[in-house]
Amino acid sequence: MKKAPQNKEMKAVALSYNETIDTEPRVVAKGKGKVAQNIIVKAIENNIPIQEDTALVELLGELKLNESIPEELYQVIAEIFAFVYKMDKSIGESKK
Q1: How far from the centroid of its chain's Cα atoms is residue 46's Cα?
Q2: Cα(27)–Cα(17) distance, rounded to whole angstroms?
Q3: What is the pLDDT of residues 73-90, one digit of tens each?
Q4: φ/ψ of residue 14, rounded to 5
Q5: pTM for this one?
Q6: Cα 74 to chain center, whole Å?
Q7: Which domains are present in the chain?
Q8: Euclidean distance between CA atoms 69 and 64, whole angstroms
Q9: pLDDT at residue 24 above 80?
Q10: What percent of the chain clears pLDDT 90, i.e. is strictly above it?
Q11: Ramachandran area for residue 27 (φ above 0: left; ψ -120 to 50: alpha; else beta)
């Protein structure tokens, strides 16, 4: 099992998007230090892909919880979700 890095200055932001109820992705968790470590540990435990992008975390960290992402970030977030979708699809196919 992977372990979260021990860097106390670590920051993390978790996004969620459910196309049946959301109009755009939204911030569902964020934090730094121990809170960031806990977010990452929970993601690892639940097989949620982790994308490391310091600049994006800084931008998303400015948003409030449950706030939708700003339109300026749609393209980069869409690319991340497409990457996650491809990973999920390839993992599902390898389990067949």
Answers
A1: 12
A2: 9
A3: 999 888 888 887 787 777
A4: -110, 135
A5: 0.75
A6: 14
A7: 11-94 (3.40.1690.10)
A8: 10
A9: yes
A10: 51
A11: beta
